[in-house]
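Entry for the shared binder. Reason: the reviewer on the internal report wants the predicted structure included alongside the sequence.
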Amino acid sequence: MSIFADVAVWAIACLHAYILVLEMFLWTGPRARAAFGTTAEFAEQTRALAGNQGLYNGFLCAGLVWGALASDPVGHQVKVFFLVCVGVAGLYGAATAARKILFVQTIPALLALILVFAAR
């Protein structure tokens, strides 16, 4: 079960690294605009805000990588903390921005959290 938990944590870390790139560096480009459903004008107006959001996604990624690399018990505790952070951020995003965030961010984080606890 441990390998499944590790793969899930790494996958969510990679997802947040990708979101960081979209929000910090590609926000005004066609790929990010399609992913987030924004217009060119809106993307340009919100570039700084998106960059800030991307930085926070980078912190989530860094925490998950730390948890994946650290030995237990610290690794387990860090994974749990950052997966809960991802889940809460996803719930907030789903409630305030787009419902699809629930499926992209929250549910995968909760599934990974279950796997992390099952692997213990």
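Summary line for the report: Residues 2-24 form the longest helix (23 residues).
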